[in-house]
Amino acid sequence: MNSLRFFNILCLNCIGSVFFGVANAANPEDTATALAVAAGVKTGLCAIPDAGDGSLAAAFAKKGFVVWASNPDAGKFEAARLAQADSGLLGRSLYLETSRPGNIALADRSADLVILNVSNPALLQSLTAAEVLRVLSPYNGVALIGPLSTANEPAIKEWAKSLPGVTGKEVAGTRWLMARRGALEGGQPWSHWFCTPDNNPVSADSAFDLPTEIQWLGKPYSYPRHVGCRVAANGRVFVMIGASGSAGVPDDMSDADGKTHQIVARSIFNGSVLWRRPIDKDRRVLQSAMVADGDRLWLADGQNVLLLDAATGEEKMRVPVGKEGESCKWIALSGGILTALAGANDPPETYFGDYSKLL
Q: Which of 151, 180, 209 is the last residue of a domain?
């Protein structure tokens, strides 16, 4: 991984005019919204090579994306940087760079969304489909290529034919091509606390290989004492976090409401925080309390097992477990059957105190 790509991905979590033909008079915010909705990508890392004056890149950053955008014309981007100087976005969620044509300066398999403006014919002359595929994240990564016209459509389809899952897409009255990366070949989910429902912590994953590289770093750089159940599937990792009574939780572990005990869902490939969900401060986190089931997440929560949308954290279903004075201790999913174990509530001191009491 070259130093420029590493620098961009490392910084993620410290990851002409309005140039699209999506309604020529549309403002950048409307364009960004239309493209994100069409792609089905709500947040994450967005790459926009040859990004015109950078106004659309800034619009994506305001929507919560981390955006890398490039332009070979240094003068245009200098004006864009000056325009965003007081926005608080530069160097945090918006990275405007001058780079050589044909290069997307991001780590392999890191981008959730790649926007290619083909109203500039020179873009596809310098950028290869292989480079776009290199940076797209498996499972959820999407590239949007357009707008299409009668004149350019044959050439664009020829250029994109090596990309996976290419389909046509209507975006605010204009036609685009959409490519989706799909599953990681050889990848296996870590669906339970110990990988599989039989508690065998040995993965059959063949996608991981040596030598290893740092894919991303994200805050907090050191977790509190109790990082509990961790599961992963379909490009997302879910971590249940608590804290000891003495050490507490660092400020940057809190969510928008100041909650410190929580589940944090991130992209495996770039570390973007997808959602957070607070949990009871007295609950155990060192237990089989989550199951990653494709695009769904099962969560043991008090007297219930919840079914959540893995991408958004939205609650889809609530299944009662146990009776008054009991809580769900353990869940597993096998053969489409969810099994739950309930028992008497644990007193808080079994969590806030001697670690050996958890064993």
A: 180
Q: Is residue 213 a part of any domain in this protein? A: no
204 in a structural domain: no
Structure tokens at 125: 């002359």
Amino acid (one-letter) located at 100: R
Last residue of a domain, one of 143, 164, 180: 180
Domain count, the chain: 2
- Assess whether 276 and 141 both reside in one domain: no
Question: Which is more confidently placed, 61 or 98?
Answer: 61
Residues 52-71 have pLDDT tens digits of 888 899 999 999 999 999 98
Residue range 278-303, pLDDT digits in tens? 988 777 788 899 999 999 999 999 89
Q: Same structural domain for residues 166 and 84?
A: yes
Percent of the chain with pLDDT over 90: 56
Q: Is residue 270 part of a domain?
A: yes
- Same domain flag for 159 and 26: yes
Q: Output the pTM of the full model.
A: 0.83
Contact 200, 242 (CB under 8 A): no
CA distance 76 to 308: 44
Does residue 276 lie within any of the structural domains? Answer: yes
Residue span of the structural domain in which 8 resides: 3-180
CATH of the domain at 74: 3.40.50.150
The mean of the pLDDT values for the chain is 83
